[in-house]
Design brief:
The chain is of the alpha+beta class. Strands 3-4-5-6 form a four-stranded antiparallel sheet. The chain has a two-stranded antiparallel ribbon with strand order 1-2. α6 runs antiparallel to α8.
Amino acid sequence: MDTSVFTATSQIVGWLAPAVPASLLIWIWYRSNSPHLLLKRLWLLVNGGEKIADKKVGAFLDDQTSLVCFRYHTGLQPATLQQAQNIIDWCGQNDVPFETVKKCREIFDINELRLLVERLPSKKLMISSIVLAGLLAGCTGLLAVTIARSQAALKYNESGHWFWVQMDSATPMWTLQDKPFYKSNCAKQELRSPQELITQREVDALCTLFDSKDMPQIIDNAVKGQRAIGASLIALLVFCLYWLKQFWVKADAAEKLSRKSLREFLPELPKISTN
């Protein structure tokens, strides 16, 4: 059994152990645009659930917590809690689902409470994004087919040519013609001559590889390596496709909001007690 696989896996796990929680903390900080939530958790660990004695300071910190939580959950970045409340009130006055504002937050002015219509995605950009999605989907499918192969992608360094190699054959990668060079050809001198797409030195090198006792290990390691790289690339492409899907969702929400008749925001006046 190849113990190096377990060594590599343990190294990756050892690296991911601190990286995952650190990435989560950075994401919370980035999303809320403030370390307040993290500092509050640290304070609770140190001080427990004891409330702050000064009511004014306690109320201020509670407001900060509400503001930062609003930022984190919505992705909107109001400067004050009052501004966050104004956004909520604007949605109520205009009968706009708050989720719609969240989706098109990149082109929604939270200061003036209006959609920046001039920044709506153009038709040309939308068509380009659809074409890009098709290309990404095609590349994803091609990679999926490639990593499913049990053949190893090996390069002959002298010529720079790549081959799909398995235990009994090697096929040039740079041609669409399926003309493999078989291991059985090595035993017959007349078949060891250069092929149409393979030079004599490549033939000799392939025969040496076929006869090597290390060939099963070479093939196995190469296939594992290319599958790991392929899986990583597929994950990246899937993320890009997800990002494009979110872009379309946001563009659709912004387009629908732009067609809606919106009233100018009127702040709610504080109620005056008659007692």
